[in-house]
């Protein structure tokens, strides 16, 4: 796949992960601040979800670059990296799930590079990859304490298909963290996702 650039952010490009993937992971900050837990509701906008505000804390999921080593150069999976002015700032891991949907296994952006369109550019490439494989859509999971991610998915046309209140109880029986499953359904899997003037553009 050729590199992809974003017309709104000319210094932003996305391409297939290279040998610098591990070094980029170890050198990045993927943490985010949690200020509230949401009582998510299907078919209701994120900004209308009731919130339980808490004392803010930073949350970070441990990311191991070796976990997805087999995803590179595979027929049913891929890893893409985002670069801002040639510096690696984000990545997305995508694969074909058992139910026929593309599955975003991981999406993360280096904290200082946020609000530059990085996550949106990575999601656009995931959509391109999924449509090229003629899959019916994309699915992913996030949590009710990651409201920034929920708002992003909502803006990108994802809808929530399920809520799992018990998924994390095995780790912490008293957790308030709830799993939220989002889906981006394609009306026409063969439609060209790059036809929109705001979509990423392939460059030679």
Automatic annotation (TrEMBL):
PROSITE patterns the UniProt entry points to:
GNAT (PS51186)
Q: Where does the source fall among the domains of life?
A: Bacteria
Show the CDD domains listed in the entry. Answer: NAT_SF (cd04301)
**What keywords is this UniProt entry annotated with?**
Acyltransferase, Transferase
A Pfam family found in this protein is Acetyltransf_1
Query: InterPro entries in the record, alphabetically?
Result: Acyl_CoA_acyltransferase, GNAT_dom, N-term/lysine_N-AcTrnsfr, Streptothricin_AcTrfase
Q: Which residues form the N-acetyltransferase domain?
A: 32-187
Q: Provide the GO MF annotations for this entry.
A: acyltransferase activity, transferring groups other than amino-acyl groups
Stored PANTHER family: N-ALPHA-ACETYLTRANSFERASE, N-ALPHA-ACETYLTRANSFERASE 50
Name used for this protein in its record: GNAT family N-acetyltransferase
Tell me the organism: Pseudomonas frederiksbergensis
